[in-house]
Structure formats: structure tokens, C-alpha cells
Amino acid sequence: MSETPQIDTLRQKTRQQRAAMVWEMVWAAIQFPAIVILAACALLWSDILNAVPRPVPLLILIALAGLFLFSLKSFLTIKRPPAAVVWRKLESANSLQHREASSLDDTFVPGSGAEELWTEHLRRKLSVLTDLKLAWPKSLWRSFDPWALRLPVAMLALAAFMLGSGGLVSNFQNAAMFTAPLPEKVIVLDAWAKPPPYTGKAPLLLTSPAMAEKLKTQGEIVLPENSSFSLRLTNATAPQLAFVSPGSDTPITLTDAKTAKTDDGFTAEIKLDRPVTIKVMDGNKELANYPFAVIADEAPRIEFVGEPKPEGLGHLAVKWKASDDYGVKSVTAEISLSDTQEDGQGFASNGVFLYDPPIFKIAMGKPNAKQIEETTTGDLAGHAWAGLFVEMTLTARDATGHKATTAPQRFKLPDREFIRPLAQAFAEQRKKIILSPDAAPDASTMVGAMLRYPVDIKDNAGLIITLASVKSRLATASSPDDVVAVVKDLWPLILNIEDGHMNDIREELKNLADQLKQALRDGAPKEKIDELMRRMREAMNKLAQQLQKEGQKRQADGTMPKQQGKSLTPEDLQKMLDAIEQLNKSGSKDAAEQLLSELDKLLQNLQPGEGSMADNGAPGAQEQMDALSGMMGKQRKLMDETQRMGQNGKEGEGEGLAGKQKGLKGDLGKLGDGLSPEDGGNSLGEAGKNMGQAEGALRDGNKGEALRQQGEVMKKLREAMGKLADKAGQEAQRGTGGRSGNADDDPLGRPRASHSPNTGPNKNLVPSELAMRRAREILEELRGRANAEGLDDNTKAYIDRLLKGLY
Questions:
Q1: pLDDT of residue 639
Q2: Does the residue 182 lie in any domain?
Q3: Predicted confidence (pLDDT) at residue 307 exceeds the cutoff of 80
Q4: DSSP character string of 418-460
Q5: Beta partners for 292?
Q6: Rounded CA gap, 721 and 683, in Å?
Q7: Pairwise pLDDT comparison (482 vs 623), residue with the higher score
Q8: I need a labelling partner for 427 at 20 to 30 A (CA). Which of 72, 173, 240, 344 fits?
Q9: CB neighbours (10 Å) of residue 557?
Q10: Is 282 contained in some domain?
Q11: What CATH number does the domain containing 205 carry?
Q12: Are residues 741 and 633 in the same domain?
């Protein structure tokens, strides 16, 4: 049969049908291998095999591989369908009968004489077969998998792909190992911010969940200036930091940023001196973002409180107050000569300019305090400028180096007045050569005249010889420097004439008092404090003996001042030292240090025949301190009742407590009427205002606000107590303690131990051993409760205020 276009089309459809039949056989053979592959993928994607003990995962993989190979046997049965089978498929798909399609391959027998009939037969067949339809492949899986296992296996594979960890290759490698794989390295980020130590603020852990929640609400981390940001990053492939301006992506440069890389780690230390956002990156991936806002450190503030005043024996007392946002580190004083003196502008001679300015040291009682108000005393009477007008400036510095300076304060530098005539005469000559160094020969002549009959020092041969040497040096002085050297050496000789050995004893007591103050501040061991106490007792006994000898000597010389009342006794001084020791043992270190300062002033200014107590009929500072102490006890008791408010279920409890607070306010008003502002009157006035606000809060049932205001009341009462203690010390030094000059009174006007210890101002002055032990137990109990978990904010604040009151 000759080829025609119709036959070509028919043969093409035959090829297409054969391909469809082959695909149908392949599809049937794919079913079981596909199910095995999906099952293997589900196991690998889900990473279940890594949770199975070794070497079970490997055995499972081998079993799956064997099953897969076995499932491939169906492919061995796939063969190319013969033409007759393909034609039959087409005939069946098109409902053809009598072999309409398959008979096209039949051949004509030549020579039969029926060629025309055969040709017509073929034409008719082709006309029927022009529009044959193909029989498309059909899936036979339903007949091979009646339980439809393929569906759950496919769903498991999909779920493992979406939710599982790792990839096919890595999980396959891990499962194929005989030993468990090493855990995957996880990026670990630790970051924290450390405020400067002087701020007293705790470091912040920036990677904590609490900080993450805080950043969601606040949006930034607020830190003091010069805080440091520290970071430690491990297992990152390409760690780096990016610094941008807050709220934008503008890069900025931090000069003080130190970073370091190791094999598996990355560290950074950055000083935060400006607002910045720090991004922690691993390549292009952002691991963390920390926006920092920086609070600039403020300069300290300082000012004089009143004018500098002279104290006994030529000492200078300077009262000042300073403050800083994080604490005052140091306070210094500078003194310079004033241009204006009593006799007008300038000086007749340049002698005073030969001497360096005096050094006035200021030792802060509470270093690094945010607010501090103190009185600093110093002995400058021996300086060449004593008796002249000077100007003083105070400078306060904080830990960052910021400083503030006061305006110059003009005052006369105190000069000591001497009682012994010989001391007065030598002091006069010393002053003369200070102002006019050229007068040194005249002064030498006067010294020689005084040494002809040295009545006051006739028994002190060493002092006479030294003064003779001074006379010779004055006579041969060839330069101003020689005169300056004589002036400096002459002062201790004058003190020796006036005080004898008392001056050395005072210096020893001063050094011991300073050491004891420092020991109390540092919390030194008990053995060290006991040793300093012992040495002070010995020095005080020496001073008392020397005072007695000097008093007898002056009385014989007729230079003893007129007695105003009683004189201090060694028992008086020892009682004050006993009180300091007992206060330290009971934990009241601040009160012990304050009383020690008053004792030190008393000892330094004490003179033979001085220290008497006159009766002025007015209530003294000690009585006011006693009344204020009782007031503080009542207020603390009321705070305890306020803390328990709401726990007893009493109706009208707040009104009752408000009434008690109102009563205390009235008592406080009466107590404050007799106090001047510098003696604590201002502090008591502010305490009264806080009491009124606490009363209102109690009536409203606002427990937290009431406790806060009552805490402020206690703070103001303690300030007033400190000022009254200063006043008591001053009264003791002046001999006007506010009591009659009874011989049974102590140096501060209080009844001696011969009176009942349970009555009057002496009641509970020095705690008993039982009271001190109980105080320590209460202190330890409060410390333990302060660290307990689950406390509400009000309770924590209350315990904190109690602890502060005990230190």
C-alpha cells in the first residue's frame, strides 16, 4: 500500500498510543518505590533517626535501601508493546469492529485481478480512521494499593518537610554514623551594661527575658554617661558590630570601642559617651539590637553655710554643703590673702607674701555622698597669715572629674590668744617680723631682753637654749628666707611656753581621733578599734594630769582665768569615750563618729580652768535631743502600725492612725518653737509638713504614700538630731550646756552615773549588753527579710528605711 497523508497521520497516532501504554506500565511500576522513598524522606526530615540508639538508624536505612531495590523489580517487566497490540488499543478506544485499524497492515495478493477492489477497500478504511482518539494512560495504583497506604506516607513526608529540622543530606549523614553526631553549634550571645562604679548602680543583663520585655515598652536603655557595654558572642561565623544613631540608620563612629576575635568567639568592650544603637550582626543577619540613651553627668554643687568662724585656741570652723547626682568625691579649700585689710588696701610691707598659703584640709565624713553638709575645723593659728583677712574658695569634685567652685569668702584668719606674758611677748615679736622681715635685728634684741629673766620657763633649760639660738639667728639673718625659717621654728616654742607638754598630748589625741574616725568608717576589726580606744584613754589621762599641773601653775602665777562653774574631770572625758565605744558596739557608727568629733573639739580647745557649766535658765541642747529622741521613737512605732494597716481588718484604722500622726505633728511644733534654723528648726519644719501629708494619706487609706512621707519625717528628724549634737558640743566647749553648774553633771550637762540610770536624760544613753544583743538580732532579721523573695514594693521600701536608720 502506497503511503498517503492519511496513513502518515495514522502511524503518528500509533506511536503516541504506544508511548501512553509504556508510561502506564512505568506508572504502575513506580508505586512501591515511591512509597519507600517517601517513607525514608519522612524519617530523615523529621530527624527521628537521630533520637534512636546507635546503630539502629543505620540498620533502618539499610532495610529501606533493600526494600527500595526489591520494589524496582516491576521495571523489569516493562516491554515495548507490539503494533498489533497498539492497534487493538486504538480500536478499543474508538469502538471499532472488524479490525478496522489493525487490518491496515494486511497485504494484497498480486495477480488475483482485484486491485481496484482492494484500493477501494483501503480508501473506505482510511475514511473511517481519520479521527481516531488516543487511549490516555490510567493509574492502576488503586488496584495495587487497596489500603491507600500511599496517602498517609505522603502526608507524613510533607509534615516532616515543613516542621522537621535539618536537611536530607545532613540528617542522612548523621543517621548513617555508627556514633551519635556532635551537637550543632548554637550561637550564644551574652551582653551586659555596667554603669560606672561611682554611680552605685547595678549592671544590667541585656540578654535576659526581663530586659527584652522592658525594651518592648520603653524602646531604649537609659544609662549614666561613661557606662560600658560588654559583649561575648560564640559560634558566629562572621561576627561584627554596627553603630548607628538612635532612630535612624546613620552610621556613627565610637572611638573607645575595643573588639577581639578568637577561633569561636567574639568579644567587645565599648564606652558609652553618647546616645547610640548597637547592632550585633553575624554576617548580614542581625542577632540583637540595643538602643542606648545616655544621661550626662552633672557637675557637683558646693556652697558655704554661713561665714567661717573661729573656735577656741585659734581653730577655724568652716561649715559647707555640697551635692552631686552620683556623689561628691572630694572637697578642697584654697586660701589667699585678701587685698583689703583692717587698715585699708594692700600691705605696708611685702613680708606676708614670703609665706605659702595655709593648707586647710577637708576630710569628708561621708565620702561619695550625694548630699553632704559638714563643719570642718582646722588649726591655722600657727600660720603667718593668722590675724589677717583672707579669701577662701571651696571646690567640689565628682568621680568623673567635674568640679564646682564657690565664690571667694572673705574673713579674718583666726589668731590664738595667749595667757602667759612670755608667750604673748614672743608671739608679738613673731608677728612683727612676719609683717616686716627687716625688723629681725630689733626682734633679736627684744628676745634677748626677755631671756634675761625667763620666769615662765626657768625650769626648762632646753627651751631656753633653743630660744637663745633663735635670738642669734634673728641677729644674723641675711635674707628673707632666713627670717621665714625662724618664724616657722618660733611657733612650736611659743606653744611650749604657753601649754608646756599639753600641746604634744593634744597632737597625739588629734591623730588618734582621726585614726579612730577612719576605722569606724571602714568597719575595722574590733581588735583595732579596741587598741585605738585604749591609746586614747591613756592620752586623755595624760592630758588631764597635765591640765591639773598647768592649772596649779597658772594659779600660782596669777594667770588662771576666773572660774565660771565646774571644771572638766578625767571621769567626764572617759564617760564620753565609753559612750562612743558602746555606740559602736550597738551598730550606731554614725552616732559614734559624731560624738567622737565633739569629743575631739572639746579636747583640742580645753584649757586649764576652762570647761565650766553656767546656768542660763534655758533648755539646753541635750534636753532638746532627749525630747527629739522620744519623738523619733513614737514616729517609728507609728510607721510599724502603718505597715500593718489593712492586715487587722479593723474598720476606721486609717482614721485612728491619722489621729496619732496629727498628735505627733502638734508635739513636733512645740519642740521646734525653741530651735533656730541652724540648730535644726528648718529640718523640724519640713518634718512637720511631711507629717501633715502622711496624715492626709492615712485618712485616704493610701498606705504606700503614708509610709513614704513617714520615711521623709524620720530623715528630717535625724538631720535635726545631728545639728543638735553639734550644738551640744559647742555648749560643752563654751561651758553653757543649759543646766546648772551642778557638780554631779557631766561635760554636756547631763546627770552623772550617781543619778538613777533609768530616769532623766541619762536614761538609755548607753545601751545595756542585752539591748545591744537584741539590736544586733533585729538587724540580722531585717537583713534576712530584705533578701526574701515575693515581697511587695511597699514592704521592701519599709525594710530598706529601717535598715538605713540602723546604720
A1: 86
A2: no
A3: yes
A4: P-SHHHHHHHHHHHHHHH-GGGHHHHHHHHHHHTTS-GGGTT-
A5: 221, 276
A6: 9
A7: 482
A8: 344
A9: 13
A10: yes
A11: 2.60.40
A12: yes
The answer to whether residues 485 and 512 belong to one domain is: no
Q: Which of 412, 434, 461 lies at the terminal end of a domain, its last residue?
A: 412
- Considering the domain architecture, whether residues 23 and 170 belong to the same structural domain is answered as yes
Mean pLDDT value across residues 80-107: 68
Please give the Cα distance from 196 to 324 (Å, whole number): 15
Whole-number pLDDT of residue 117: 65
789 DSSP 8-state letter: T
Closest CA to 278 of 233, 237, 236, 235: 233
Q: What is the tens place of the pLDDT at every residue in 372-409?
A: 999 998 889 999 999 999 999 999 999 888 999 999 99
Decide if 165 is inside a domain.
yes
> What is the tens place of the pLDDT at every residue in 107-162?
666 666 566 666 666 666 666 666 677 777 777 666 666 677 777 878 887 877 77
- Residue 66 DSSP SS3: helix
Say if 125 falls within a structural domain: yes
Q: Which whole-number Å values give the CA distances from 12 to 86, 205, 608, in the listed order? A: 12, 78, 141
Q: Are 57 and 92 in contact (CB under 8 A)?
A: no
DSSP 142-210: HHH-TT-THHHHHHHHHHHHHH--S-HHHHHHHHT-SSPPPPPP--EEEEEEE--GGGTPPPEETTSHH
Based on the fold, state whether residues 637 and 704 are members of the same structural domain: yes
Q: Are residues 534 and 475 in the same domain?
A: no
Whole-number Å distance between alpha carbons of 216 and 237: 28
Q: Which residues have C-beta within 8 Å of that of residue 231, sequence separation ≥ 6?
A: 189, 190, 191, 241, 266, 267, 268, 270, 280
Q: Are residues 582 and 447 in the same domain?
A: no
Q: Is the pTM of this model over 0.90?
A: no
Residue 435 has which C-alpha cell? 609683717
The answer to whether the CB of 327 falls within 8 A of the CB of 368 is: yes
333: part of which helix (H) or strand (E)?
Answer: strand 330-337
Other beta carbons less than 10 A from residue 800's beta carbon: 13
Beta strands in 574-713 (DSSP E): none
Q: What is the pLDDT of residue 739?
A: 36
**DSSP 3-state of 731:** helix
For residues 717-721, average pLDDT: 80
Q: Do 699 and 747 reside in the same domain of the chain?
A: yes
CA distance 152 to 46: 15
Domain that holds residue 140: 5-175
The grid coordinates listed for 52 are 534512636
Grid cell in block for residue 224? 549614666
Q: What are phi and psi of 417, to 5 degrees?
A: -100, 130
Return d(Cα 301, Cα 222) in angstroms, integer. 24
Query: Which is more confident, 465 or 412?
Result: 412
Residues comprising the chain, all counted? 807
CA distances from 727 to 255, 320, 665, 733 (A): 54, 16, 24, 10
Please tell me whether residues 108 and 150 are part of one structural domain. Answer: yes
What is the percent of the chain with per-residue pLDDT over 70, rounded to a whole number?
72
Q: Render pLDDT for 757-772 as a digit per residue (tens, 0 to 9).
A: 344 444 444 444 445 5
- Give the per-residue pLDDT at 57: 78
Q: How many domains does the chain have?
A: 7
End residue of a domain, out of 582, 608, 634: 608
pLDDT of 520: 79
Q: Beta strands 239-244 and 276-282: pairing type?
A: antiparallel
Cis before 55 (ω within 30): yes
